[in-house]
Structure formats: C-alpha cells, structure tokens
Write a structure and sequence with these properties.
The protein has helices at residues 20-23, 29-43, 102-118, 135-144, 161-167, 183-188, 196-206; strands spanning 2-6, 12-17, 122-125, 152-156, 173-177, 191-195. It is an alpha/beta fold. The chain has a six-stranded mixed beta sheet with strand order 2-1-3-6-4-5. The mean pLDDT is 92.
Length: 208
C-alpha cells in the first residue's frame, strides 16, 4: 500500500509505502464503538452532586404541631416535598472510569488508521519547517493542500514547539506526537496529516 508524498507547497514529490500491518487491517467497527464509548466515559469528571434532605441546612424543628391546624402533617421544612428541601435520588460524585484491554485498544487504533488510509483521508508531507511561531504560515500550508475546510490532525515525530504553538489557534487543526495518538483523536479528524518522520515513527512503534 502506498500514499502520495507532498511538500509544503502542496506539490506531489513522490510516494511512501504504508505498512500493511498498520494501514491494511480490516476495520473492526464494533471494537471502535466500544473504544469510543469507553474513552468518552473516562473523560467524565463525575463531580455532579445534589444534597439530600439530611444534607440541606435548616429543618431542625417541626414546622407546626401534628394535629389541630387543619393542615397536612409536616415534620421538616427540608422535606423533598417542600421548596428548598432535599433532592430525592439526586446525582452523587462517582467515577465513570473503566479499563479497556490493551489488545482491544491496539485493534481499535489499527482499525482507525486503516479506515483513514483506505478512505484516502491521509496526507503525508515530506516535512514541515516553519522556522518560527507563525500561524499564518502553517495555515498557508494547510490551504495549499486543499484542507482548509477539513478537520485536520497533524502528526509529527516529536515535540515541535513552533508547530504546536502555530497550530493551536487555527480552527479545525490540532497537533499530536505520532507515537501518542489514540483511536478517538483519529476518528474525530477528517484528515490525518503526517510528516514523513511522523509516519516512520508510527510504523516503527506500532508495527510489532
């Protein structure tokens, strides 16, 4: 399997080979769905909370005597039936975290990468050299590739501060170190933009 190789001006300068072990896998949509559900659940803070009748302030005395007033019996002004009272079965802080098996996580990642490659939603650049922190320059490179309307995920070999800071203010463009990618970020992007070094690193790390 091969992909076209482009330079920063958007011109085709050759081709690169894609590993069949990574980009030639038959996508497993069931595993991908399980992974995304698990990933989003693990992002939840689980801090929502409501006070029950034993936690709200006040209500220490009986509001009126039991009999003789003509009104319904009441034992506390903080009953859930009263305004300002406790909440019945309200949310409590909890953890939504759950583990996901490593082999299933790896299969989800390979399925996501293969899906992008097979749908031709993968672009490889020979390099991205900005020389300075310049959002306009990076936006120009994205525009020359015809991806200005697409949600792009740029994947580079290592931490490039110029690239990180130049990309974070461009709508629909995000950046990640290639060895640290996950299936959710891949699926969330319309197009994967690899640098040649980033692609080589992915194939080195995930081929085994």
């Amino acid at each position: 399997m091969e992909a076209k190789l482009y330079n920063q001006d958007g011109a085709e300068v050759g081709t690169v080979s894609l590993s069949e072990q990574i980009f030639g896998v038959r996508p497993n949509t069931h595993i991908l769905h399980q992974y995304v559900v698990n990933y989003l659940a693990n992002q939840r803070q689980g801090t929502s909370s409501a006070k029950g009748r034993s936690e709200v302030s006040g209500g220490g005395t009986k509001p009126w005597r039991q009999k003789g007033t003509g009104r319904a019996r009441a034992g506390s002004i903080r009953s859930p039936l009263w305004r300002g009272g406790g909440i019945v079965f309200g949310p409590q802080p909890r953890s939504y975290y759950s583990k996901f098996p490593k082999r299933m996580k790896r299969l989800a990642l390979l399925s996501a990468l293969s899906s992008k490659a097979q749908d031709q939603h993968l672009v490889v650049l020979d390099k991205i050299e900005l020389g300075e922190i310049k959002t306009k320059k990076l936006a120009g490179i994205i525009g020359k590739l015809g991806l200005e309307e697409k949600k792009c995920l740029i994947l580079h070999e290592g931490q490039d501060e110029h690239l990180v800071l130049s990309s974070r203010n461009i709508p629909k463009v995000s950046y990640s170190r290639a060895p640290l990618i996950n299936a959710y970020d891949i699926l969330n992007a319309d197009v994967l933009v690899f640098t040649k070094a980033g692609l080589d690193k992915v194939q080195e790390v995930f081929a085994s």
